[in-house]
Amino acid sequence: MSVWSASTVGNNYYCAHPGSRDGHSNNWCPNFTKHQCVMSGETPIQTDDALHTPAYLSWRKLQLSRAKLKASSKTSALLSGFAMVAMVEVQLNPPSDTRVPPAMLVAFTVCTTLLVAVHMLALMISTCILPNIEAIGNLHSISLVHESPHERLHWYIEVAWAFSTLLGLILFLVEIAILCWVKFYDLSETAAWSACVVLIPVMIIFLAFAIHFYMSLATHKYEVTVTGIKELELLKEQIEKGDHDGRMNNLTLLDQGRVV
């Protein structure tokens, strides 16, 4: 298993394309006909045999965990900032001058607090775990993947991802509806109700897409797992057949030795 990294080669070399206009090739790649090596921040290219090793599987999980934590941190920081600005900038009238139901004000306070708390929790998890994963991922060395904590902290990563993309987005949509109600109810009851009417189908579409996405992802993982199990069973049969043929050959040799 060969791993190409910036620590083992220079920073100013590359593999030229075979069909370049000048026909000149400055490549140092030993497997030039199969792939193109570029000194960049991309994941190192592996051979076909190395793609089925536990280390490469762990490396793929590391890259997925890193992508989830990056998306979670950006989304949480953005949406929590919007929620804080909405809470600070909203202008509320005194109780004697407003027709907004007190229950709606309580719902606005609770929803805003939950929204900020959920996104801050996701942001904290991402901020704490991401540097440790980045430190190993930036080395571009699969042999060091066991030093990354992404396997041990897998559930924390999934919690941050769910809080930021699923629960956090749902709370943000609810926050928009409540904010429109609090903001426009004194001016126009129709405007307040129209916000709720518009957001109801949006919420249904959002939930339908989330359920469909997670079901499709679960089905894909199931199919990949079944394929892997079938390959293992086939490999087991081949090994057992090889052992059986070896035993038969040994018995044949013993019988021939006895006859002689």
Automatic annotation (TrEMBL):
Matching InterPro entries: CRAC_channel, Orai_sf
UniProt entry keywords in alphabetical sequence: Membrane, Transmembrane, Transmembrane helix
Transmembrane segments: 75-92, 104-130, 159-185, 191-214
Compartments (UniProt record): Membrane
Record carries keyword Transmembrane helix: yes
Family: Belongs to the Orai family.
GO cellular component, one term: membrane
PANTHER family to which the protein is assigned, alphabetical: CALCIUM RELEASE-ACTIVATED CALCIUM CHANNEL PROTEIN 1
Entry membrane topology: Multi-pass membrane protein
Protein name: Calcium release-activated calcium channel protein 1
Protein's UniProt keywords contain Transmembrane: yes
GO biological process assignments: store-operated calcium entry
GO function terms (MF aspect): store-operated calcium channel activity
Gene3D superfamilies listed in its UniProt record: Calcium release-activated calcium channel protein Orai
